[in-house]
Description:
Blueprint: E1 19-20, E2 30-34, H1 35-42, H2 55-67, E3 71-75, H3 76-86, H4 90-95, E4 105-106, H5 110-122, E5 123-126, E6 131-135, H6 139-151, E7 156-160, E8 166-170, H7 172-181, H8 199-203, H9 205-219, E9 220-225, E10 233-243, H10 250-255, E11 261-262, H11 269-276, H12 281-294, E12 299-307, E13 313-322, H13 324-333, H14 341-356, H15 363-374
Antiparallel strand pairs: 1-4, 2-3, 5-6, 6-8, 7-8, 9-10, 10-13, 11-12, 12-13
Helix pairs in contact: 1-2, 5-6, 5-9
Amino acid sequence: MGKSRLRHKSIFVPEHTKSYHWYEEGRLSCLEVYGESLRIVLNPFLSKDLPRPTKKQRDKFLRLRREATDIVRIRVVTLLEACELLGISPKTLERMKLFKRDYPISLGHPHIYKLMTHLINEGNVVKRNPRGYYSNLDMSLHDRVAELVTSLGGYWSRRMGKDNVPETCIGAAVVKLLTKAGMVPGKKTQGQYYRHLPKQILDYPELNRYHISATIAEEGWPSLILKVGSKPRIMMGYSRSIDITDILPKEYVLSLEIGKKLSPGYIPNEIKSIIQAQPFPFLDDEITIIEKELHIETQVNLTGLYKSKKARITVEWRVTWEGPESVKKYEDNFGFLAGSKVERRFKLVWRLYEEYRDRPLNRDVWDYIERQLASV
């Protein structure tokens, strides 16, 4: 076995500005502000010598000042109007600690990139009427996502999604923050995966380790390779798919059957060559992190093509590493998200491997191990 992908050195997407400000929210967005601070901001409207506002504008802001409670919900456009009439910079309101949410928000905040990892793996964000969605059967991961959203000053709700899979819904405020930090709205197979990992994830060990650990929890698996008459083998891995419709010959795309996965043995060599030459910078960055941290060489293999109902073609790549030394290195260097189903599965896989590693399996033991694995 060996590598079946060509590696590419691509240029990084330029970094975004360093902070996210209140005035970058949608103009009609409602922000929560402290009533006492709002009254201080609006005090100048008490003076009839203030040159800019009309009587109608002055009356509006004096009414806001008079009616302000402990926490006030106010539209961005209204605050921007007040800044213009008062002749102050919108950033002045941040320095006055007007907002309940702590603006400006540093785009270096680690929780932004931890949340981004979860949504890239098992969710998505939409640009129009900004919202984010996270789907997973593991409720411990939903709780992680909710905690990260809350820590960033956002709101979330939960519902039952498609195929009875729980879904955490994320409000616009956090989604806008994520997109400014580098998350690409829409289909990740056509957008996010054609970019490198965010530079913060690449540069900071805490974040790149969390990214890989979360990716294994959501896209990967620890596993035993079992064969009657042979000793068990232990491995780990995960898969990612990327849309390659636009690089394939049109006649080949038309020839594929919708809804059917095509295994590598049925893919013509000339098509494989096209696929292997196609950049997948997001996955290449992940592989580099794993191999550098563990001092191993992973196996990267094409496992199939799939044609969707919308006639889009995705190719699945599988990344694996095998053997007790490599797997133990992974546990020591990256670890598993505490409380996750994958963490529980790994403990069982490792226990079974340690128990049976030195003896060939008979049919009864093979059946027993399979039943144990099916239970998690």
